[in-house]
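User: Hey, my collaborator sent me this sequence without any context and asked if I could get a structure. I don't really work with proteins. Can you help?
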Amino acid sequence: MILSARKLTLLCIIVAFSLLGIKPIFTYAAISNAVPIEVNKTYNGTLHEGKNEQDFYKFSLTSDGNVTLSMKQKAGVTWDVTILNNKGEIFESLETDNSELIEGNAAVQVGLPKGTYYIKVSPIPYDYSAYGQRYEFKVGFAASNNYEKEFNNSLATANAMNVNQSYKGTISDGNDQDIYKVTVPNDGNVTLSMKQKPGIRWYASIQTSSGKVMEELTTDDSELIDGYASKEVGLPKGTYYVQVSDDSYSENEPYEVQVGFIKSDNYEKEFNNSLTAANKMNLNQSYKGSINNSNDKDIYKVDLPSDGNFTLSMKQKAGVKWSVSILNSKSQDFDSFVTDDSELIEGYETMQVGLPKGSYYIAVEPDSYSEDEPYEIKTAFTASNNYEKEFNNTLTTANPISLNQLYKGTMSDSNDKDIYKIVVPNDGNVTLLMKQKAGAQWHAQLQNSNGYVYKDFITNGDELVSGNASVQTWLKKGTYYVVIENDSYTEDTPYEFITSMKSSALKASQIKVTNNKGKDDVIEVSGTAKADIVKVYNASSKGTLLASKTSTGPSVTLTTKQVGEKAGKVYVTVTQSGMSESDRVAAGFSGEQSNALSASQVKVTNNKGKDDVIAVSSIAKGDIVKVYNANSKGTLIASKTSTGTSVTLTAKQVGEKAGKVYVSITRSGMSESARTAISFAGEQSNALQSSQVKVVNNKGKADSVTVSKIAKGDIIKVYNASSKGTLLASKESGGTSTTLLIKQLGQKAGKVYVTTTNPGMTESTRTAVNYSAER
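Assistant: No problem. I've predicted the 3D structure and written it out in structure-token form, which is a compact way to encode the shape of the chain:
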């Protein structure tokens, strides 16, 4: 087959474009016969004057996403390219640049939902440069739900937006606006952010369905700008709308916008600029917010469950000043402050105020450069009756206080005055004491209801000051007032003071201490009153509390496990109703009873003709040993202090006859032990005279030994030797003489040895008595 020249030329063109990957398209000038194309592929064509003056193409999107229309630019040629729907409504358009040195592509972006769309290529009016010039274009597509989808320029057609996701879009012209619908799932903090670009400004806002703007921003178009413009606002759960529009040179410039969200009850929720619209605030938590403009005001409501001290703090920031106030429901100002905006400032500005149980309001207002600056505010509360409660600047509104308790307060301004009412229960000395602080001077005074000042002082505000300022004055039983005023630089500086009255000390004669052994020790205190609190300590200061008891009458008895084994002192106080604890009074006590000696520790030697001896062993230096003649009372026979581990005592006579002595020991710091009974032998009996003994050596019958001039009960013994030997006979006398019979003394003459043992005494020495041989 031979091809015509025209067909051959056309074939060559088709082959050439195929090799280059570019598809030539033969188009028709109507949407109804638009040529189908595919996304993300390059196409070309040519416009001809008088015919094919505009070309139409048709493409389909299988999902929502971002469409990028790009057209290759050429010097001296201008094409007009638009994206349309089947109704001819324009989504986006571009004009190529015909500059002499132009190169590259002109491009526009638009988010579109799934569907069918059209591309129209045409010359611009009264410009014939596009005719006969081959054009090249491409429809790029990226599937995504995070692109703005036209048309979305009304609340009804708003694109759905998820929190914490970025969305991209473009403003097609100065009258275009893109609107997104966002659901805030819970109460919390919303951050509207928009990426910034040099030379371009977008306006963005977040608003309600009624068009009330909750927050807004305009991006910065500075030459070196980077990052994001952002605004924060606390919002309650609900549906809101984000509007993006042109502010300057933003037409057809891709933008990026995001709505960040953090779930929290601790963010300011607009609109809260009145007492009735105040945000609820919990105690002891931090809250964040921002002031939208110079006329904005954020108000929070806080409930105090009881009387106490309320602390309000605000984080400070260089270059920014906020004004913060504490109000009641009548908008009366309890206290206020303005944050510090110094260059190097950090930390928190804080104020404290004592308040009674109830509802209060915190107002945050701009002072200087605080518009759209995030702030952080926090509260703290300590339940207590010991804080000054505003308003208390007159005698009739004076805060009632108790003696001997610490109270705290603050001066809200230099003209403030805090007054406290105190009842003195008894005549006596009352002390007013106030803690001193560098840089602040308070004036404090004690007065009566007529304004008569008994005593006053001004605290020292020197740089290195420490301790307290105080005065003491004698007051009669009655009602008085403590008045505290500013003297110098005390505004919003916490102060603390105490009025005290000390109980009268006990007398030593009122206290009796019994130091028991093996059971609780007892402290008896007399002369007390009902409700007096008696305390017993082991030292004159600090130390350990041994016992405490509230008296129910004129005396009180306390017990403690142990005041001490050895003699010592306890220290006793009394605290009378409404007064502070008295000084401690020392009360002595004796030591516990020493442990008794055991009988094995004591040895008694009952000497004849010289002092008797009592030896005590296994004792300690300083122990006192006493020897008595009776188990109780009786006569002290001997007493001696040991200088070592044993001691020897002597006595003129413990007794001739066998008996007992009673020995005690008193160990160092303790009381005398019970007496231990120690038996002792009697003295040695007097030896018999030989004349008292008659020995008859019989033959053929028993020999006899007769002893006379003795006493009934004497025991007579007869031995065959002067020591040791054999006992020949023994007999107890029944009267003044006795006869002992012995079978055989010996046939020859010899000697016997006779002893006597008087009752209660030891055996006498042996007396030698001669006898003759048997006859």
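In plain terms: DSSP finds one helix and 58 strands in the chain. You can pass these tokens on to your collaborator as they are.
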